[in-house]
Amino acid sequence: MSRTPKLSKQSHETLAESWLRHLADDLQPTSYRPVPSWPRIEHFRNRDTGKLYRPHTPDEEAFVRADQPAHVLLKGGWGAGKSAAVIVKALDRVRRGCSGIMVSPDNPHFERSLWMEFERWCPWDHVVYHNQTRRLLRFDTGAFILYGGIEDPEDWEGPNVNWALFDEARKKKDPAAFKVLMSRVRVPGPKSPENPDGVPPQLFIATTPAKNWLFDYFGPLREDDGLASFKKDSKTITLVTKDNLENLDPNYVDKVSSGLTEAEIRVNLLAEWEDLEDTQRFLPAMILWDLLREDMPPLTRNEPMVVSLDAGVSHDNFGLLGVTRHPKRSDDVAVRVSHAWAPGRYGSIDFIGTDEHPGPEKVLRSLCSMYNVVEVCYDRHELHEFVTRLGPRGDGLAWFREFNQGALRMESDKFLLDLVLQRRLAHAGDPTLRQHIDNADRHMDPDTRRLRIVKRNYDAPIDLAVALSMGAYEVLRLNL
């Protein structure tokens, strides 16, 4: 079949009624007929680009080739190649004589997304029958595919198949459609030399993640988890957008990121589990910050001070804060030094700088020589070389302490919010520090109710806010 058939509109008769009415002819099981000319996984070629299918990561390749476990979630960012992966996986099952179901959350989404991608990969020369009204494809291996939107899950109760592909399942607000598909996938595939016991049934899902019912089924195993048995026969694989840049505009990630919040980037490009509705501004109103401004006596040489650093070496800002206990209220915190640097012409920070415009290293050396810096705490992410050169094993400039960015950061971020709300923090009104605080959102973990400071927008720096979180925590932790 040389021309790709176009979809026709579905009649008022439900798909299930149509399939069951014709079960005696088109859907009756047929024997498996191996077809040597069928493409293997590595031979599938995109009709539009001419490119062969190539998995981008070992996890993606394992997903496409593995017949177990029974339930697999492929969560991926926008443009990460998840649709191509599940379609090639489905077609490889068809090659082995396994019939299945291929659905999207609704018909419009199916027609403009999954079907268009399927057209690019399907070996149409091996299609022997296509009923567009009943949305049925039969192949020369004896296998068939039932396809369409799954608006009403009950319409899909009836056919029993070996596999099911559910694209963008996150758009469904409850797991009803997922449960119906799970109940339909129960027919072992044909036996063959490569599958002597037959191809085991499998349900595979491709979606951008949403922390809804999908997280309940495919998220981490929890104590007293009611879905523990399901999770033991399930697996989750993650594809990130940047791994598929060879098939995208090289600047796609940067272009898209500029219009997304940091939380949206984590979900839509990095495919991380996150509920976007759990993110809100770090401070409910900036007046809470402005009320903390006060005049303080100059910093003396003997006052113990913690310096905190948060930075990215390239294409990100560098924040440095000096924090002490309040000179009059020992249970409170005072911001005494504040510096921030933006990337230079070539996207990196000049660590040394000049006498007129000193860089982070020059400022840190000056602070350590002029004041009583008892600790330098830092985010290790891109500062390992910097700290190695200046720390105890290098110049011995100060005592450096790596500040864990996991549970400890979440604790210190919540602690900083409490300090502000309780008016136990003072600052001198530095406008850059204020801007970084204003740029910050807080993401709440719905399970632990702990919070984390995150960027509101991709290009909005929050380095000084993070540095303040770490520094304030350390100043009150240490017995100074």
Question: Descriptors for this entry?
Answer:
480 residues, alpha/beta, Rossmann fold, Nucleotidyltransferase, domain 5, 2 domains, 8-stranded mixed β-sheet, 6-stranded mixed β-sheet, 15 helices
What's this entry about, in short?
The protein has 480 residues and is of the alpha/beta class.
Structural account:
- The chain is of the alpha/beta class.
- It has two domains: 15-265, Rossmann fold, CATH 3.40.50; 287-477, Nucleotidyltransferase, domain 5, CATH 3.30.420.
- Helices cover 29% and strands 19% of the residues.
- The chain contains 15 helices and 17 strands.
- It starts with 14 loop residues before the first helix and ends with a helix.
As a percent range, the share of strand residues is 15-25%
What is the total number of structural domains? 2
Give the oligomeric state: single chain
Low-confidence stretches: none
The CATH superfamily of the largest domain turns out to be P-loop containing nucleotide triphosphate hydrolases
Taking the sheet with the most strands, its summary is: 8 strands, mixed
- Radius of gyration of CA atoms, rounded to a whole number: 29 Å
Q: State the distance separating the first and last CA atoms.
A: 80 Å
Name of the CATH architecture of the largest domain: 3-Layer(aba) Sandwich
CATH C-level class of the largest domain is Alpha Beta
What structural class is derived from the secondary structure elements? alpha/beta
Helical residue percent band: 25-40%
| Rounded mean pLDDT score | 86
Which fold name is given in CATH as the topology of the largest domain?
Rossmann fold
Characterize the overall form: elongated
- How many individual helices? 15
